[in-house]
């Protein structure tokens, strides 16, 4: 995946299974396996740790939780604890928010590499500072092929360099009871659009929270609406926040991107989920996570929200200075003002 756009390319990471060697590779000729007895005496100094090791936070609860290892730490965002915390804190400190009148039900944030969309994403997560949710539901697109409309992780927790975030399996089961579309758990997914938001949540929310991760593969309006309504029933009377993950238009020049992106942001701001699908289908605006955003808006409406406020907008060209082919990024807050 490209950290700018999230488009697929050859990954720099290999699944651990690719390192498994067939037993036949260890077969030696008998004559080669006659060691001198003295060669079996190993000095303790020969046992040194491997030069690469994960940050200590990767080992939190290692004995009790099945962790989804990060496939993008160190490429899409900083791979070590202190640099990552410092970078995210810097983005959050630089975010200048307008006045927000109302209770925050959720936010919308982009999902490119932190270098590109981090300054915009920080506006969404800066709006969450001071809140103490017990649960964060993240709705994100699934950019790879999968024969499932809705996907979640089969692991018990997500691992980032800032620590582990436990998945609330009980609430996931409750959501599934409220929904007649299966949410399929899969292991070792490579999806970046959900994980990329986690370091921001870990720095913006100081108290511990659990995660409800949902990746939307089906772009259909009916799937998004059913998911949103089921999510609202599940989260009612719970101390929860919803995060919708999406980028905007891809690979247009800066001027054209502005036209498409402001139309899609207008649809977000209208708080009319149907208009998001209409813009996507008519080519007036684009968002790779449009179904995730629409589901989030349907859920938020049922939870009492009545306003979407745009917080920030930029493109990858504002970072790279190449305006010939850009990706759009927007951040918004979903508010209950009544």
Q: What brief labels describe this structure?
A:
338 residues, alpha/beta, Protocatechuate 4,5-dioxygenase, Chain B, 9-stranded mixed sheet, 3-stranded mixed sheet
Measure the end-to-end span.
Answer: 41 Å
**How many structural domains can be distinguished in the coordinates?**
1
Low-confidence stretches: 8-62
Number of DSSP E strands: 12
Bin the helical content. 25-40%
Q: Whole-number radius of gyration?
A: 22 Å
Helix tally equals: 10
CA-based shape: globular
Q: Tell me the structural class.
A: alpha/beta
Mean pLDDT: 87
Order of helices and strands: EHEHEEEEHEHHEHEEHHHEHE
Strand content: 15-25%
Please describe what this structure looks like.
By secondary structure, this protein is α/β, with parallel strands linked by helices. The chain has one domain (56-336): LigB-like (Protocatechuate 4,5-dioxygenase, Chain B). It is 31% helix and 20% strand. It is built from 10 helices and 12 strands. The chain has helices at residues 81-94, 114-126, 169-177, 192-195, 198-204, 221-235, 254-270, 273-282, 290-302, 317-320; strands spanning 67-68, 103-109, 135-141, 150-153, 157-160, 163-166, 183-186, 210-216, 240-245, 250-252, 307-315, 326-336. Strands 2, 3, 4, 7, 8, 9, 10, 11 and 12 form a 9-stranded mixed beta sheet that branches. It has a 3-stranded mixed beta sheet with strand order 1-5-6. Strand 5 (157-160) and strand 6 (163-166) form a beta hairpin. The protein is globular. The two termini are 41 Å apart. Residues 8-62 have low confidence and may be disordered.
């Amino acid at each position: 995946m490209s950290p700018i756009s999230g488009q697929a390319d050859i990954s720099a990471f290999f699944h651990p299974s690719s390192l498994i060697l067939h037993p036949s590779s260890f077969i030696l000729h008998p004559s080669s396996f006659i060691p001198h007895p003295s060669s079996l005496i190993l000095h303790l100094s020969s046992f040194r740790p491997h030069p690469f090791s994960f940050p200590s936070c990767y080992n939190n609860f290692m004995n009790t939780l099945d962790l989804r290892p990060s496939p993008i730490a160190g490429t899409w965002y900083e791979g070590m604890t202190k640099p990552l915390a410092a970078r995210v804190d810097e983005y959050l400190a630089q975010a200048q928010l307008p006045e927000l009148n109302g209770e925050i039900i959720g936010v919308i944030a982009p999902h490119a590499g932190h270098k590109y969309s981090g300054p915009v994403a920080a506006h969404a997560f800066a709006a969450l500072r001071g809140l103490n949710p017990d649960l964060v539901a993240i709705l994100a697109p699934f950019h790879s092929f999968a024969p499932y409309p809705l996907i979640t992780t089969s692991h018990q927790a997500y691992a980032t360099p800032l620590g582990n975030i436990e998945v609330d399996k009980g609430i996931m089961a409750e959501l599934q009871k409220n929904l007649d579309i299966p949410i399929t758990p899969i292991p070792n997914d490579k999806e970046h659009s959900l994980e990329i938001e986690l370091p921001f949540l870990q720095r913006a929310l100081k108290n511990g929270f659990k995660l409800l991760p949902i990746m939307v593969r089906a772009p259909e309006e009916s799937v998004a609406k059913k998911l949103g309504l089921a999510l609202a029933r599940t989260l009612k009377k719970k101390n929860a926040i919803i995060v919708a993950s999406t980028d905007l238009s891809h690979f247009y020049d800066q001027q054209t991107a502005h036209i498409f992106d402001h139309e899609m942001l207008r649809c977000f701001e209208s708080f009319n989920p149907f208009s998001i699908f209409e813009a996507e289908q008519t080519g007036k605006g684009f968002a790779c996570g449009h179904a995730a955003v629409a589901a989030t808006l349907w859920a938020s409406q049922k939870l009492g929200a009545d306003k979407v406020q745009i917080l920030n907008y930029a493109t990858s060209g504002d970072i790279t200075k190449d305006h010939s082919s850009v990706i759009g990024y927007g951040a918004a807050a979903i508010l209950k003002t009544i």
